[in-house]
Amino acid sequence: MTHFEEPILKVRELSKKFGDGCDSCNSLIEGSLDRNYCPVCGTIHACQKISFDLYRGEILGIVGESGSGKSTLVRCLYFDQEATAGNAYIKDYSDGQENIFSVTSQKKRYIRDHIFGMVYQNPYLSLKMRFTSLSNVAEKLIAAGNRNVGKMLDRGHQLFDHVNLEGFRRKDAPATFSGGMQQRVQIAKALSNNPPILLLDEVTTGLDLSVQANVLDLIKELQRELEISMIVVSHDLSVIRMLADRTIVMLNGKVIEHGLTDQILEDPQHPYTQQLVHSLL
Amino acid sequence: MNYEYNFGFFDEGSKREIRRTILKAIAIPGYQVPFASREMPIARGWGTGGLQITLSLAGKGDVLKVIDQGSDESVNAVNIKKLVNKTTGILETIDTEAATLIQSRHRIPEKYLKNGQILVLQVPMPEPLRRVESSEYKTKRLHADAEYSGAWLMLFEQIVKYGSMTTGAAHPVFVHDRYVMAPSPIPKYDNPKMNHSEALILLGAGREKKIYAVPPYTKVVSLAFEDHPFEVENVEGRKCHLCGATGIFFDELEDDETGEVYYQCNDSSYCLSRLNSDKEVQ
Amino acid sequence: MAYVAVKGGTIAIEESIKRLKYERLKKRGILDVKNIEAGMRGLIDQVMSESSMYCEELAALAIKHAEGSPEEAVFLLRAFRSTLPRKHYSKVVNSEDMRIERRISASFKNIPGGQILGAAYDYTHRLIDFSLVNDHQSIAAEMQWLDNYLTDYQPQEEAVVLRMPKVLDYLRNQGLMINYEENNEEPKDITKESLKFPTVRSERLQILTRGQTGAVTALGYASLRGFGSVHPTVGELRIGQLPIFISNPLASETNEDDDFYIGEIKVTEVETIISTSVKKGRSKTELKFDIGYGICYGQNETKAVAMSILDRCLETKDDAPTHDEEFVLYHIDSVEATGFISHLKLPHYVTFQSKLDSVRKTQKEAK
Lengths: 281, 282, 367
Description:
The structure holds three protein chains of three kinds.
Chain A: E1 9-18, H1 25-29, E2 44-54, E3 59-63, H2 70-77, E4 85-90, H3 105-114, E5 116-119, H4 133-143, H5 149-162, H6 179-191, E6 197-201, H7 209-226, E7 229-234, H8 237-243, E8 246-251, E9 254-260, H9 261-266, H10 271-278
Parallel strand pairs in A: 3-7, 3-8, 5-6, 6-7
Antiparallel strand pairs in A: 1-2, 1-4, 8-9
Helix pairs in contact in A: 4-5, 4-6, 5-6
Chain B: H1 12-27, E1 33-34, H2 48-57, E2 63-68, H3 75-88, E3 91-92, E4 101-105, E5 118-122, H4 136-144, H5 149-162, E6 173-175, E7 179-181, H6 191-194, E8 200-205, E9 210-214, E10 220-222, E11 250-254, E12 261-265, H7 268-281
Parallel strand pairs in B: 2-3, 2-4, 4-5, 5-8
Antiparallel strand pairs in B: 1-9, 6-7, 6-10, 8-9, 11-12
Helix pairs in contact in B: 1-2
Chain C: H1 2-6, H2 9-25, H3 33-39, H4 41-51, H5 56-65, H6 70-81, E1 99-104, H7 139-160, H8 167-173, H9 201-209, H10 213-225, E2 233-246, E3 260-280, E4 284-297, H11 301-315, H12 325-329, H13 334-342, H14 349-366
Helix pairs in contact in C: 3-5, 4-5, 4-6, 5-6, 9-11, 10-11
């Protein structure tokens, strides 16, 4: 894929550490792929100077084992966690001029409500489990300033049609739903304000195989229909193979390889990636 | 062992501290100012927030009226009046117009309040977002960011479930286009009285340790949707069986013998004043 | 006739207050405050602790006024406390200076200074002593017993005055305790400033120490049972008198020799030990001991131990409710909890009328 236009999201040297860090941190972590924690002070360097671009309409995969920092990465973008250092620019927000990590908390809420949609592995993180499904979708619409119940209900039904949530369950609370259905509500909620970028964090992990395939099909379909950009985080290369145009491979908080997904799957360069690809039957 | 209480029960230092909190509340309409709420001789939840405001503001020339759920004579109103009287000796009244300080639980008097009067409302739950967010730490941040989707979401959920907004008392209001505020559990019928009120309205939550204010002539709008406007309780076709008033907030009563439902002014001093003026005419 | 329905509350209230007085007097006996002070040590200690006001005489008076209801007595004292200007803050008290009356450890049999059982119900059978029914008739014999006791034990009293080393210092010196830097920050005064979350430890300890005995015990117990992750060993429980000093208010410079001694207070202090894992690098962890701290006015042992559990809970992250500071700190205060629960007895005619209106409306719409 060739890109003539500017990226919709630019991430530059994003770092996130858990702990205060010490003088030895840099020398012991930098250049080491064996660990992401400092043996002296115990600080975990979850993400280290991660840079990448995301283009309009593409799906970017981020793959790595648990603890590689891939979830932390998207959570920093969605402001669930505060990035320790680095910048990120969004084309659709102040024309990519402002570093989104240094804007006020009010503006961060605006970005969360208008620019990003987020789907977590654990639906409890984004859904109000005891509110009706329609209210869950409306929450984002209300946050974006909608004050018309009829219009919001229409939008809710339209989204649920999209994600195939049966009509008679729409006034039920997600707490009464199966895992697959909860993911559908989450996706509908994430899409409610037509965000240009959708973040998906291990969204099929823990679901039955048939349900997994179902949800993956839905994501693929939505992407084709809405031409939305996506970042798909997964430990599962088969998910990445099915969805992602380009892929980033992470290990212990660092990017070790990136490129077109097909290329990475057919001709992995890094020994870790090779090992990962070989284990994919 | 003998002990004399200070004027207004508190020591002067405490009263000054509460007055400072009130000034801050007036400066930021609708914002809940935390304060070190004192333990009072009446129980938490029985109006200690309002009482602390009243005691710290009362001067020798003030005239106090206390209402509980519309009545000047209800147990709690009497109790509060007795306490203020015991510790200040200031004049009491049931006449809304004669009062300079009106402490009230859950009602704004029917008679229009005037410039120079202060209405003190007792508040059990000052946080309008508490039902969607149980953590105080988080609701404080939501107020800071003016992120009020939660308040509208509660109303939206009611509409999805029941077809209309089902808040009883304490329907949230938007103050000065900035803060969403719990108006204390006044009936919806009283909400519009807060908008551009001539009188200063102070709200005190003793147990939750917050004081907030609606200064005179402040914009107060009840939360609603474009296609689901704010509606007050239905009082149509009702009439006070004593004074004949209509279009006000009523108590609903039932005749012991016939089981027939009849209505009576909830604001008892309003009713009395109507009855008395009737007599004068006769 | 028409006026009756509108008025009438005042008279009913006066009658209710009369009835209350009748209940106090109807058995034709009047308690002497002195008797309460002499015979209700447990209740006085509990009431002083929950009202965070140390005065046995006032506590006894409040108990009399409240007919023995601790909830009411605490309420009275807290309200009274609100009228007192805060003129001084006491100097830092070091609990090693305690004049010890009881001191035990559940972690070591032999502790430096020895275990001192003192006065405690722990070693008694809870069989009602029916001889107490008539002991006021043999008051001379009882007083004789008291005099004998005092003569027998007089010489040893001096020995008890000794300062005792802290049991936990033994573990500290061996490097088994997690080391904390001394925190000399001025403590916040929760009675002058309302809580803001996250709180600081001085605020947490103040709320815990004046918490309702039952509530603190219940939450500490909940943590032990599994709704929390703290299960401690009592390193040391000590009860005794602590001297209280204030700086000379007239002196411009603080000079310890100028300090005023204003009296002593009896406290229960508990230090519990909790083993906890400390991360060393990514995969290595080692075990160390951490401390839970409890202290309250008077002899309130269960509460002090429970407080030490909750103190540690609030210092440690966990999903359980006993580790949630808003959950614990907002709900254990006697005056706040009993007040809000009891306000449900107040008339809610207006609010209920509003609810009625909503219910009727939705029923109409459903049809």
